[in-house]
């Protein structure tokens, strides 16, 4: 697996830019604000993965999940999984959030499904935009508070 | 929640196990991944519940190790989606050791007709 093309600082800069554009599009009542807010969250999570201490300790990774490796912090995919006993691409970001950053998994999942709905399906139900912004704010605030780190005891909280 | 989830899981396991036994009697070639998709599909339908769900399909991408699912809701509101997203987190956690689950909402009832049931390995519809 190739190392991430961006470093953590650049991921944060991209997150902040996407968040600002998402806010501007929300003020214009444009559903593409959801896409920008999701990618803001994505970059905050990517920055967190690159700097999370768990990915400097292979034994900690294994205690949390036997198939989690140090290289998984570099994942560039939303969804993937190495089959048990087989070759594959490791973990995707969505499942790393579920495994490592449980306090934001609901908000991150809302943002991801909203982004998919805007890009590939018929869009969002009415009344979606403000809750989506709230979810993005939750992820942003968790990042800024230093809360996006794997649980220390090896068990997901 | 824990008790209900365990009860649902037990009921689902019984149902899927029964299906596997029946399938095994008539079709020895039922693959592991088909059994996984069946199990995941039955469990998801039971967790979300028919009061919210109008249709659900799932297909396993063996290359990426991902089950791609489409969810059609009876009433497509943000509140309904939020409830289902929380329930899908339970499902994803239950299957975290086996497979990654990618899902999308198909939107309005008109779009539910585009759910590709014929191409899916698991399909549920009301």
Description of the molecule:
The complex is a heterodimer of chains A (157) and B (126). Helix content of chain A is 55%, strand content 0%. The two termini of chain A are 28 Å apart. Chain A has 157 residues and is mainly α. In chain A, helix 1 runs antiparallel to helix 6, helix 2 crosses helix 5 and helix 2 (33-51) packs parallel to helix 6 (129-144). Chain A has a single domain (8-144), classed as Four Helix Bundle (Hemerythrin (Met), subunit A) (Up-down Bundle). In chain B, strands 3-2-1-4 form a four-stranded mixed sheet. Mean pLDDT of chain B is 77; it is low at 1-26. Chain B has 126 residues and is of the alpha+beta class. Chain B has a single domain, classed as GMP Synthetase, Chain A, domain 3. The longest helix of chain B has 25 residues, at 2-26. Chain B is globular, with a radius of gyration of 14 Å. The A-B interface holds A 65, 77-84, 88-89, 91-92, 94-95, 98-99, 105-106, 109-110, 113, 116-117, 120-128, 131 and B 62, 64-66, 76-78, 81-82, 85-86, 88-89, 92-93, 96-108, 111.
